[in-house]
Amino acid sequence: MGKILGFSQTKIQNMGCNSCSTGKDGQPKGCKNNGTCGTDGCNKLTVFDWLSNMSLPSGEKPFDIVEVRFKNSRKGFFRNTENLALSIGDIVATQAQSGHDIGMITLTGELVKVQMKKKKVDPKADDILKLYRKASQKDIDIWQKSRNREEEIKKRSREIAIILKLQMKISDVEFQGDGSKATFYYTAEERVDFRQLIKDMAKAFGIRIEMRQIGYRQEAQRLGGIGSCGRELCCSTWLTDFRSVSTSAARYQQLSLNPQKLAGQCGKLKCCLNYELDLYLEALKDFPPQDTKLFTEKGMAFCQKSDIFKSKLWFSYKDEPANWHMLSKEQVIEIVAKNKKKEKVVSLEEYALDNVVEEKVVFENVVGQDSLTRFDRPKRRNKRNRNKNRRNNNRKRRQKNA
C-alpha cells in the first residue's frame, strides 16, 4: 500500500524519505510537500508516540478517537466506531461532509486526548466524524488519480479567474479522497465575488467546488521557498503556528526599520523576528532606555547607540553630536541616579576614560600583499628592460650582418 502511494512506511536513518532522495541525474528529487509528506521522517506535523510500547492497565479500553492527517497541514479527529486495529501510518477512509476522504493515521491511543485538549476539542462531542475502514486498493487508486489532477486544475482555474478579471490568486487545490470535491485555497486583498467562477469551474471540471480564503503566511507555508538566510522557509518546514509579529520586535532588537529587509516572502514581517525577542526583553529589564538623557556641567548628553549584550552605551553632547563617548551600563545608571538627586557630574570624559581599550594588532602587513591596488601600478621598469633588451638584440644583429 505504501509503495503505491509513494510513501515509505519505515523510517530512514537520516530522517529523510525515499521521495526526497537523489535522482538518477544526481539532482535531489524533493517530494514537494513542504514538510508534510507522508513518511513521518521529514514531516513537521509528526507527534512522537512515547506510549506506543506501553500496554493499558487491566480493565481499560483503548481510546476510540484517532488523529488523521490529510494533504498539507490539515488534520482531524475521527471516532473509531468499528474498533479497528489501527497504527500510525495506516491509510484509512474517513467520513466527510459528502462522500469519504482518504488520510493517514498520525496518532492513536491516550496521546490523542492530549492533542484534543490542546486544540480545545471535546471528545464527547456528537459532531466528531467517523472512521469508516482501512483504505482498499480501489480507494487508493482513486485518491492518487485525483491528486495527479491537482496541478493541471490549479493552472486552468487561474486562467478562468484571469478571464473573469477577479483580483485573487489561487495558490493551491486539494481534492477529496473520493475525487468528488475539490477545495481551492486563494488569497485576496478585498472581498471577491466568485459565484461565476464557481459555476465555470464546476462546468469545466465536473466536480463540486469549495473556495477557502487563506492568509499570506498560510500561502507561503503551502508554496514553500528559500528565505533570505539561505534556508527553506520556517513555515514550510517546522513552524506550525503563526504568532503575530509587530514592528516593536525589530525596534527592541535595534534593527533598521526597512520593510524590504524585515518582510518575508509572504510580504509580512518575518516570523524569525520573534525567535530572540524574549532574550532581548529579558536583557532590557535593567537596561537604561534609549531616550535616556544625562546632565553634566559641560552640557546635556543624548544616547546615540546602545549594545545590549556588551552592556555599553554611547552618548554625545547636544552641541557635539559627532563626538561619542562610550559608557558602561553601570556608569549610566550611576549618573542617572545622581541626576535624580539634582546633582550633575563634571563631564562624560572622566567616565569614558575608564572604557578605553587598546586595540590589539591582529594582522600586520609585512610584504605589502594586502594592497588591492598593487596590480594597478604601472610596470615602467619592466618596459624599460624590454626596450633595452630589444636595442641590444638589434645591435648584435647589425654587427653580425656587417
Describe the fold and architecture.
This protein is α+β, with helices and mostly antiparallel strands. The chain folds into four domains: 2-139, no CATH class; 144-218, 2-Layer Sandwich (GMP Synthetase, Chain A, domain 3); 243-284, no CATH class; 293-355, no CATH class. Helix content is 29%, strand content 18%. It contains 13 helices and twelve strands. It has helices at residues 2-5, 111-118, 137-148, 150-163, 195-205, 216-223, 234-237, 247-252, 259-262, 277-283, 329-340, 349-352, 380-401; strands spanning 65-69, 75-79, 91-95, 100-107, 129-134, 169-175, 181-187, 208-213, 293-296, 299-307, 312-317, 324-328. The chain has a five-stranded mixed β-barrel. A four-stranded antiparallel β-sheet has the order 9-10-11-12. Helix 4 (150-163) crosses helix 5.
Features of the shown structure:
402 residues, alpha+beta, GMP Synthetase, Chain A, domain 3, 4 domains, 4-stranded antiparallel beta sheet, 12 strands, extended
The overall pLDDT average reads 81
General form: extended
Strand percentage = 15-25%
How large is the radius of gyration?
Answer: 34 Å
The stretches of 5 or more residues where confidence is low (pLDDT under 50) are 1-16
Largest sheet features: 5 strands, mixed, barrel
Please trace the helix and strand order, writing H or E for each element: HEEEEHEHHEEHEHHHHHEEEEHHH
How helical, in percent, are the residues?
25-40%
- What structural category arises from helix and sheet content? alpha+beta
Number of beta-strand segments? 12
What multimeric state do the chains show? single chain
Total helical elements: 13
Distance N terminus to C terminus? 99 Å
* Strand neighbour order, sheet with most strands: 1-2-5-3-4
